[in-house]
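Lab notebook, design round three. We kept the backbone fixed and only want residue identities now. Task for the bench partner: fill in a sequence for the structure below.
Input structure tokens:
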């Protein structure tokens, strides 16, 4: 019997394959062909890959295109609190019934073909978008690129935000190998935008071999921050310079509140330039001010200031450390991570900017145990950690003990952020000054 609720379907699709990850496109292509989807109804497809920065790049593209009257579909992963977050039409999460109907179609089409949770969900999302009919479909790669399920759809524009070390068991342990995997989303002759200012040579080789019309950050487009010569502090203005357009003296949002890094804005603007969809300078400033990406330097409270970030690899940790230095003040952090991540390097990047640490193991299969966390903290040079049994309790500790001049950072994984985001939604009084 087929499930009749979204929760039931999610439980069902999680049990249809013996592995959580099974890289390869043959099974997905087979089922996609059986679904007989009209690809023209997906509009122009923009596929976004990268180690970090995918979510915020998608958010900028989505908001600007919708503001110009386009019908836009976005598929992102993973979600924080609700599966519906992954599948959006015109900025709105798809409702349970539509998702269930699409899951049912995929179930019928797959017959006995095993699909992973992500593969099942990807095909369902594509079906929803084609049924709705859109001008643009923006697909965020889940893992790598070449063998990721979203790569069954040929893009009209490909974007790679950054290339760094992550998911080494699946993608390799150096940037050259990882660059080739991410380059798998490219197609002969299509436009390609690279947001990495120092891309690996393997990526350039793939672009040259495929004959893509390429746009490289630092060569074909760039972001320029204006800095005060004496203090080195950002003065709140920036420029975007491209071959087919430019923006001068745009206002930067307040650093603690801005969850979209300018590097990712730069890449998104280059894509919009290719689509002839750049808005006016005034309109762009307004739209960027409206964008907030949950889990990406996401501020949930000002008094006290609490920031949530899903950063879980060294590159993301370096960016977090930079943002904290720019924001200033004293910070205490709540950290929990997964055992297959480079925990030592992540902690090392932030050891010099965080004054107090709170930690607990996550409640999931891939969680790093307290013993692994403690060993990693030690290797990173952090010796004073307050331990808790859960991430929620660690966050409560941090709020109780934070001084009036301290800020709280919660980071380490989507699971870490989700646990705290759920807590503050359930108990908003936690974030009031009186509760501390």
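Proposed sequence:
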């Amino acid at each position: 019997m087929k499930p009749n609720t979204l929760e039931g379907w999610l439980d069902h699709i999680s049990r249809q394959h013996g592995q959580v990850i099974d890289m390869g496109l043959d099974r997905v292509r087979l089922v996609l062909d059986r679904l007989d989807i009209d690809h023209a109804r997906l509009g122009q497809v923009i596929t976004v890959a990268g180690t970090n920065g995918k979510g915020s790049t998608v958010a900028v593209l989505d908001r600007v295109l919708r503001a110009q009257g386009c019908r836009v579909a976005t598929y992102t992963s993973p979600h924080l609190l609700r599966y519906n977050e992954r599948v959006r039409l015109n900025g709105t999460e798809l409702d349970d019934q539509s998702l269930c109907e699409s899951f049912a179609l995929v179930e019928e089409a797959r017959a006995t073909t095993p699909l992973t949770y992500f593969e099942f969900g990807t095909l369902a999302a594509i079906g929803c978008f084609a049924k709705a009919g859109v001008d643009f479909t923006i697909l965020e790669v889940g893992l790598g690129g070449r063998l990721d399920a979203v790569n069954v759809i040929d893009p009209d524009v490909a974007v790679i935000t950054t290339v760094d070390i992550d998911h080494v068991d699946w993608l390799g342990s150096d940037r050259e190998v990882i660059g080739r995997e991410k380059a798998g989303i490219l197609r002969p002759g299509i436009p390609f935008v690279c947001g990495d200012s120092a891309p690996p040579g393997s990526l350039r080789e793939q672009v040259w071999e495929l004959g893509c019309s390429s746009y490289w950050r630092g060569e074909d487009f760039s972001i320029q921050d204006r800095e005060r010569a004496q203090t080195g502090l950002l003065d709140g203005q920036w420029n975007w310079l491209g071959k087919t357009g430019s923006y001068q003296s745009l206002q930067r949002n307040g650093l603690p509140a801005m969850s979209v890094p300018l590097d990712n804005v730069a890449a998104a603007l280059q894509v919009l330039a290719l689509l002839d969809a750049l808005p006016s300078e005034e309109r762009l400033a307004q739209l960027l001010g409206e964008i907030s990406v949950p889990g990406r330097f996401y501020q949930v409270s000002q008094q006290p200031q609490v920031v949530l970030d899903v950063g879980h690899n060294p590159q993301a940790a370096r960016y977090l450390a930079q943002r904290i230095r720019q924001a200033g003040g004293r910070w205490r952090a709540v950290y929990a991570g997964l055992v297959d991540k480079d925990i030592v390097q992540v902690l090392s990047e932030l050891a010099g900017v965080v004054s107090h640490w709170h930690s607990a193991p996550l409640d999931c299969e891939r969680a790093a145990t307290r013993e692994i966390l403690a060993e990693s903290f030690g290797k990173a040079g952090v010796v004073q950690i307050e331990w808790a049994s859960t991430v929620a309790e660690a966050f409560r500790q941090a709020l109780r003990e934070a001084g009036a001049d301290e800020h709280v950072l919660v980071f380490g994984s989507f699971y870490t952020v989700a646990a705290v985001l759920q807590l503050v939604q359930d108990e908003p009084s936690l974030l009031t000054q009186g509760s501390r």
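Keep this in mind before ordering anything: The first helix runs from residue 6 to 13.
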